[in-house]
Amino acid sequence: MKNRFVVVDLETTGNIPKKDDKIIQFAAVVIEDGEIVERFASFVNPNRDIPQFIEQLTGISNDVVANAPEFSIIAPEIISLFEDSYFVAHNVPFDLSFLQIEFENCGYEFFDCLTIDTVELSRIMLPWADSYKLGQLAESFSLVHDNPHQADSDAEVTAEILLKIFAKLNKLPLVTLRKLLSLSKHLKSDLYEILEEIITKRSEFLDEEKEYDVYRGLALKKCTVEKDSFISDLENVKLSNILEDVSLRQGQLEMLTFILNAMETNQHALVEAGTGIGKTLAYLLPSIYFAKINERVVISTHTIQLQQQLLERDIPKIKEIFPFPINIALLKGIGHYLSLRKFEQVLYEESDNYDENLSKAQILIWLTETETGDIDEIHLPSGGKILWEKVKCNRTENTIRDCPWESRCFYKRARKQAEKADIIITNHALLYSNIMNNHAYLPSYQYIIVDEAHHLEPIGRKYLGQKVNYIQFHSIITQIGILDSHGLLMQSKKIFTNVGLDDSSFQLIDILIKELKINISDLFRSIHNMVIKNNKQNDNTYRIQYLLDSSKESGGIWQEILELQSRIKIHFKEIIVSVRLQQDVFSNYDSMTTPLHKGIVHDYFASYEELGAAIIELEKFLLDNQKKYISWIELDPKGPLNSANLYREPIEIADRLADTFYQNKKSVILTSATLTIDNTFEYVIEKNGLTDFQPLTLLLKSTFDYKNQAKIMIPNDMPVINSVPIDEYVHSLALQIAEIAIRTNGRMLVLFTSYEMLKSTYEILKKILILDNFILIAQGISGGSRTKLTKNFQAFDKAILLGTNSFWEGVDIPGDDLSALIMVRLPFAPPNDPVFSTRAKMITEAGGDPFHELSLPEAVIRFKQGVGRLIRSENDKGILFIMDRRITTTSYGKKFLSSLPTMTIFEQPLQSLLQEIDNWL
């Protein structure tokens, strides 16, 4: 094996070498036998101007490279570095392609060498990392990175990361290394020889495997077993005595006392705790005390981020406060956990899919580190989600007889821990799954804190409803496969043949599965056609929503849909007859098969259960006409012709929550920063089904000094949004955003309620010359998750982030990273939204006012969530721009403003407001 690695980094004028982009800095760090032995770096004269964006990013200007050598001068020295070496870079295709073209331009032959990409290697070896950008990897390794985006500094850090990863690779258990070796031929980096050499060395030290649980060819982290802790005498333990030395804010004390009283008196309650109150500590302290003295308490959140915050930041601090041990367990839905049985199975399956093999490698490393098997701990590539569907636990996992992995099942371990816990942390989705499935998923409990409670009702409608789409069917049918594929159908047929069972029924199922797949695709195509034909939205929208009432549908396409649905049902019945016979036969012979084969056949049968459930949901959507439910279709008119999504939800769930949730619990406490409208809880109490329970309420205002920390600015020279064509409004909006950005130096989050308007505004902003120095980041355009977009925004000094939907809450950008928040329009639900329009119609039919009873309160809660993005700490300072003048020109606008903390409001022409910005910032 070569033991010489040349770690390279380049800075360039752009990303496309074939379009005359050039290298402006080259750096290399040479590693031999595990040590850095040489460094080389040079600026390069590109003989062209350096774009301003690149200069801002790298700090390399035209003046810096003016007297630097051209690439041809340093090319001989560079090319000599790579002799008998690995070429290493953080994104090899980028650096290598630039160098190849530069060498060719200088008359050198195309050079070829083994490569290692530290992005790929980091993804495999650090599957839990939040980001694989160089700066964030350096931070996770506590490496000094003085000059990001300068080639010498970047190459140095890349080399240090490579050495850290190699050190970790050398310590992996032998069984893991062997599995990685077999996967390495499908990876982009040339790791085979490196792994081979490590395996040879590691074979001499097998005693080091003892720190792992090595079983059936997989190495798992040995789990720490917490001893049960029983405290015999807690009668005289008082919470007030425990908290004597704890510094709590006044609001926290009020909330703490209020929650403890609600639990001790078995009452439901609501608490709105404004930003800065510290509500997490205020509900954790009484919950833990109550759970230890009385009985367990469940804490439910909406987001994974809050669950992680509770477990990693808040609970460890709280454990230090209490004089007794506390047993805390996190429990999620079964689909969050890895099935070791299924993962063992897929490791034996050959695949040429890069993302699938990368994901397998990531999971192998993760297994040596995880105690939970919870997928939220790691970040699989986008294509890895297909693999996860194959290897996750499902509800049939517990029905396998004699499963060799049962004693190590991650989900069962999580359930056992929850059974013994004082506090169970879970999520709203599992809360509803538990309600829907006869309380099968959570251990019994009577007391619960629901954080992020403004999501409880909308999440409930989603989980008490259904979603059906073609991808769902395609995924199940692909997993079953046909006899010419490597799916479960073909694998099960081989197993039947091997144990001497009649396998003729597989031929019939093969034919029926092919027909079923065609009919399902045709059905979704017909649904797509029907929506396009009947669509009354004439704007160039990226999403069409079509309200479905099957009792009123008619015409040829609808009849075609019903006929296809009937055909699908008949085909599936024919399939299931053969499958049931196969099940009966196999049940008498399964003792003759290996655990691996038994698992394959089990998954084969379970896939038909999943397929049958999806077909039932499809039938409900198309034929069930319950008035308490709403059905609608969503599709992208430019998407695939079978890409329709079918949704079915209860119109309201207040009564169901009252009967199945609140009625059966002694104390349910809802808390959030946004539960009131105009200082009253009435709307939230009614829509959550709490009216008859007369819950206790507590409203705690934010502790931040909004009067001195924030200003509201309303440009009164913006057109009123409904009085001008949308193009004219967007043009005015973009110009005003640009001018505000110049004054605030970027650091701006712009919140939209419509993706179409966001996209139109982005296109105009791109063309405004005064913003050439600014980084524009737009949700749905720039690519990446909300977290990734937020991190990119924070990485640049002059940045503008355009967001919609998910950016209205849950985004935390503290300090100087965010100076200005712009709300483009008040966040009313669009009138053509199917759920909103149906609920509004019901209110009207009952003689009510849908605007004041539904539209306005929902918008006010959303508005409060959006404003909450601006001030995240007592040291923050910022400006809120509201571009929608309805907030002051309409009678209902005061509802929005009165729901906010007291702030100074300026309503003036933009130029006057810009002067106020100068005075303020």
TrEMBL record:
<protein>
    <recommendedName>
        <fullName>3'-5' exonuclease DinG</fullName>
        <ecNumber>3.1.-.-</ecNumber>
    </recommendedName>
</protein>
<comment type="function">
    <text>3'-5' exonuclease.</text>
</comment>
<feature type="short sequence motif" description="DEAH box">
    <location>
        <begin position="451"/>
        <end position="454"/>
    </location>
</feature>
<dbReference type="InterPro" id="IPR027417">
    <property type="entry name" value="P-loop_NTPase"/>
</dbReference>
<keyword id="KW-0540">Nuclease</keyword>
<dbReference type="InterPro" id="IPR012337">
    <property type="entry name" value="RNaseH-like_sf"/>
</dbReference>
<dbReference type="GO" id="GO:0008408">
    <property type="term" value="F:3'-5' exonuclease activity"/>
</dbReference>
<dbReference type="GO" id="GO:0016818">
    <property type="term" value="F:hydrolase activity, acting on acid anhydrides, in phosphorus-containing anhydrides"/>
</dbReference>
<comment type="similarity">
    <text>Belongs to the helicase family. DinG subfamily. Type 2 sub-subfamily.</text>
</comment>
<dbReference type="GO" id="GO:0043139">
    <property type="term" value="F:5'-3' DNA helicase activity"/>
</dbReference>
<keyword id="KW-0347">Helicase</keyword>
<dbReference type="GO" id="GO:0006260">
    <property type="term" value="P:DNA replication"/>
</dbReference>
<feature type="domain" description="Helicase ATP-binding">
    <location>
        <begin position="260"/>
        <end position="523"/>
    </location>
</feature>
<dbReference type="InterPro" id="IPR014001">
    <property type="entry name" value="Helicase_ATP-bd"/>
</dbReference>
<dbReference type="GO" id="GO:0003887">
    <property type="term" value="F:DNA-directed DNA polymerase activity"/>
</dbReference>
<dbReference type="InterPro" id="IPR006310">
    <property type="entry name" value="DinG"/>
</dbReference>
<dbReference type="InterPro" id="IPR036397">
    <property type="entry name" value="RNaseH_sf"/>
</dbReference>
<dbReference type="InterPro" id="IPR006054">
    <property type="entry name" value="DnaQ"/>
</dbReference>
<dbReference type="Pfam" id="PF00270">
    <property type="entry name" value="DEAD"/>
</dbReference>
<keyword id="KW-0547">Nucleotide-binding</keyword>
<dbReference type="InterPro" id="IPR013520">
    <property type="entry name" value="Ribonucl_H"/>
</dbReference>
<dbReference type="InterPro" id="IPR006555">
    <property type="entry name" value="ATP-dep_Helicase_C"/>
</dbReference>
<dbReference type="GO" id="GO:0005524">
    <property type="term" value="F:ATP binding"/>
</dbReference>
<dbReference type="Pfam" id="PF13307">
    <property type="entry name" value="Helicase_C_2"/>
</dbReference>
<keyword id="KW-0067">ATP-binding</keyword>
<keyword id="KW-0378">Hydrolase</keyword>
<dbReference type="Pfam" id="PF00929">
    <property type="entry name" value="RNase_T"/>
</dbReference>
<keyword id="KW-0269">Exonuclease</keyword>
<feature type="domain" description="Helicase ATP-binding">
    <location>
        <begin position="238"/>
        <end position="512"/>
    </location>
</feature>
<feature type="binding site">
    <location>
        <begin position="273"/>
        <end position="280"/>
    </location>
    <ligand>
        <name>ATP</name>
    </ligand>
</feature>
<dbReference type="InterPro" id="IPR014013">
    <property type="entry name" value="Helic_SF1/SF2_ATP-bd_DinG/Rad3"/>
</dbReference>
<dbReference type="GO" id="GO:0003677">
    <property type="term" value="F:DNA binding"/>
</dbReference>
<dbReference type="InterPro" id="IPR045028">
    <property type="entry name" value="DinG/Rad3-like"/>
</dbReference>
<dbReference type="InterPro" id="IPR011545">
    <property type="entry name" value="DEAD/DEAH_box_helicase_dom"/>
</dbReference>
